[in-house]
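FORM 12-B: Structure-to-Sequence Request
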């Protein structure tokens, strides 16, 4: 019952035109930043620790840009319940698409990496228009099962297959020798039980997943980064594909993990306002 009610509620919101949703977003910016100050301490602490070279004026500027973009992300994600494939294709253009599809033409298991940057949810929907080969979205299940189910129903509207991260290898073994693409949003905060490797990321010791590296080496699959960026027109994005790793077997232990995280950091540093600064990314500390 709760699942149906939530799904119906999201559907009603998704009926709103974009102009109305963006008006709501404009109002939300002032509410989130100035009135309720949503996770403001988290955002500013993350920014100050990540960019110690920046002065307070620069930090405030980035924070305000983040809070200005964040409501857009929220309303755009709500719209995904009803958005058409044609609309998604119009709102997210592909750059260097062959960096992904050339591997699929060779029947390879592609390990695609992205981050919580710009509108990564549009990227999930856009993937359904790139290939008819199996497309897995590797995710960490939410504690709230109702929200998790409804959320995944929305994400899989255009053919993507939602797979909990602990089950992805099982799916890929079944497809050995066939083309597929598995998308990892690799900047999540791991549980201690799921990861034990720390590295320097945005100037801080950071617990990171090593799943991208382990899966790519097991499957001998290339690692392709999907950089989702924002275009000038509101609500429009691009997805640029870059092959980071052609042959994972030639890399030493943890090298691939460092490469894709360093690539993520480079993108964040270029336009930091589009990363999810409200996330408590550094809550896991090295155990003594």
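FORM 12-B RESPONSE
SEQUENCE OUT:
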């Amino acid at each position: 019952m709760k699942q149906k009610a939530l799904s119906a509620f999201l559907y009603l919101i998704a009926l709103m035109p974009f102009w109305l949703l963006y008006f709501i977003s404009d109002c939300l910016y002032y509410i989130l930043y100035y009135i309720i100050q949503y996770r403001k301490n988290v955002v500013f602490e993350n920014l100050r620790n990540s960019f110690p070279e920046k002065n307070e004026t620069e930090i405030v500027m980035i924070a305000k840009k983040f809070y200005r973009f964040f409501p857009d992300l929220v309303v755009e994600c709500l719209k995904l319940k009803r958005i058409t494939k044609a609309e998604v294709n119009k709102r997210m253009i592909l750059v260097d698409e062959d960096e992904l599809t050339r591997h699929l033409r060779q029947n390879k298991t592609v390990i695609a990496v992205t981050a919580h940057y710009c509108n990564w949810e549009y990227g999930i929907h856009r993937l359904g228009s790139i290939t008819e080969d199996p497309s897995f979205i590797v995710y960490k299940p939410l504690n709230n099962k109702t929200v998790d189910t409804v959320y995944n129903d929305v994400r899989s509207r255009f053919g993507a297959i939602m797979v909990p991260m602990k089950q992805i290898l099982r799916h890929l073994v079944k497809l050995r020798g066939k083309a597929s693409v598995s998308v990892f949003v690799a900047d999540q905060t791991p549980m201690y039980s799921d990861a034990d490797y720390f590295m320097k990321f945005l100037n801080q010791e950071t617990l990171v997943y090593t799943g991208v590296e382990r899966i790519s080496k097991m499957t001998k699959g290339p690692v392709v980064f999907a950089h989702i960026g924002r275009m000038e027109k509101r609500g429009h994005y691009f997805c640029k594909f870059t092959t980071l790793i052609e042959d994972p077997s030639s890399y030493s232990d943890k090298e691939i993990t460092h490469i894709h995280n360093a690539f993520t950091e480079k993108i964040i540093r270029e336009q930091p306002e589009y990363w999810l600064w409200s996330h408590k990314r550094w809550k896991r500390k090295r155990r003594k």
